[in-house]
Amino acid sequence: MAGIPIYETAVQPEWIDYNGHVRDAYYALIVSLACDALMDRVGLDEAYRTRTGCTLYTLELHLNYLQEVHVSDTAIVSLRIVGADHKRIHAAFEIGRRGRPGVAASAEMLLLHVRQGGDGVASAAFPPQVSAALAQLQADSAALPPEAPGSRRMELRPPART
To answer: What's the pLDDT tens digit per position in 81-100?
Structure first.
């Protein structure tokens, strides 16, 4: 898998659906936990969140399901930072299975740094050290091409006329 290894988890039996593979919602859980690992990696960890009242909110999530994941699998997630600015992150994740070829799923997230407080929630700029960590991850992952499709517009197209 392309990308920087960021998270790994054993597949839990309760994640398996009536078709014998991971239920679609649990792919999102795996990506969400990988996003938590990203937060820890760049300094947006629990201590930072407690101290500042700042965190990340997910604005958008796109998932592509490519191969089945089973209870015997260990999901391995890699990360690429597609883009980042002073308060947003565009992150791409690929979920693989330990010891098995190919990407099982890919996801892209658009994340917003916010400050939570008594007056509500408002977007906030990253502190310089977080911006620097994101820039380093983006540089480190820039030469790592994706192995799975990226997000795209979802639509049903009318059949082509012949």
So the answer is: 999 999 999 999 999 999 99
Residue type, 8: E
Enclosing H/E stretch for 42? helix 24-42
What are residue 79's DSSP bridge partners?
4, 93
Q: How many CA within 13 A on the CB side of residue 86?
A: 3
Token digits of residue 111: 């994340």
Using DSSP bridges, classify how beta strands 54-65 and 120-123 pair: parallel, antiparallel or unpaired. unpaired
For residue 39, is it left (φ>0), alpha (ψ between -120 and 50) or beta? alpha
13: helix, strand or coil: helix
Q: How high is the mean pLDDT of the chain?
A: 93
Question: What would the CATH number be for the domain defined by 4-141?
Answer: 3.10.129.10
- Point out which residues pair with 143 in neighbouring strands: none
Instruction: Give Cα 76 to chain centroid, integer Å.
Output: 12
CA nearest 143: which of 1, 42, 2, 38? 2
